[in-house]
Amino acid sequence: MSSLVIRPTSAAMQEPQTETHYLPKDPQLLLHADPSRRVPVSFLSDGLHLAGHLYRPPSVPAGQVTASIVMCGPISSVKEQTVPHYAERLANAGYTVLTFDSRNYGESEGTPRHHYDPNQVIADYSNAVSYLLSREDVDRKRVGVVGVCMGGGYAISTAAMDKRIKAVVSVAGGYNIGGTFQQMMGAEGFATYQAQINALHAKQLATGEVQYIPTIAHHLSAEVPIAIMPNEEAYSYYDRTSKTDAPNWLPNHMTAASLELIWIETHNHIELYDQNPYVSEACQALVDWLGRTLSVEQ
Question: Do β-strands 66-72 and 138-148 pair in parallel, antiparallel, or remain unpaired?
Fold first, then answer.
């Protein structure tokens, strides 16, 4: 019988790690997307052209109507990271899947570049749903949203406001990031960190010059006092995939109806980004759940 230990993030981070598990021991378990499975599309969000990838079920003829899913990935990620591994498997299960670059990122329009506003991401998410519902090969009564990491939190927020969405799934969801940082740094440490960010924001307002901070860092230091994801786990994933899958992701730029819980035992968070068996286990669980809520005909 296995047991589950739940403890504060700050305590978990202090525990010694004999292995990082940032990459699988068996290289064949590291997933690689197949670009031939997707076609580029574009849609409007608040007047901006957003770039997307559309995945269609390989077993259905062109034009056949299917249920559909919009996907959104981790904070700062582009459509070539994380979500392709889910989109391919969901398409195999019979869904038409749309992934996209949120405004200011990747191949999408928007300025300032690499400005990440959760409210704007949620608006883009909803407008991605609008695009799917405009397609003749999509069932307008069977659309869902699936998000990974912060995209999971945005999926829930989008579905709460957009009643066209019939099902929502959050994988390794990110929600209260401020609370997570406070657990990592302590209340005083987080207050100091937040003060530095506020100072940069004030400078931007005073000068009109966009203030950028690193997206990833090995850790915080005197040389790198602020970063969005200052930890080895995030650094290992984004540094690797920006070189192999997503050259348009930049590491050092970022502006200041039913419910079911599935627990998948992993060693860390990023194993659910692009490693098997974790991605396939998550896909199987969400396909099972979406099959019940969206009633996909196999």
Answer: parallel
Rounded-to-integer distance, Cα 65 and Cα 135, Å: 9
Residue 267 has pLDDT above 90, yes or no: no
- N- to C-terminal Cα distance for the chain? 35
Q: Which of 39-43, 116-120, 129-133 has the lowest mean pLDDT?
A: 116-120
Q: How far is CA 242 from CA 31, 76, 233, in A?
A: 15, 12, 14
For residue 258, what pLDDT is reported? 42
Judged on CB neighbours under 10 Å (0-12, 13-18, 19+), 229 is buried
Residues paired with 39 in a beta bridge: 54
Model pLDDT for residues 199-243, shown as the tens digit of each residue: 888 888 899 888 888 888 998 888 888 888 888 989 999 999 999
Domain 9-177+257-294 is classified in which CATH homologous superfamily?
Answer: Alpha/Beta hydrolase fold, catalytic domain (3.40.50.1820)
C-beta of residue 273 within 8 angstroms of C-beta of residue 82 = yes
Strand 96-100 to 216-217 pairing: unpaired
DSSP percent split of the chain into helix, strand, coil, nearest 5: 40, 15, 45
Alpha carbons 68 and 133: distance in angstroms, whole number: 9
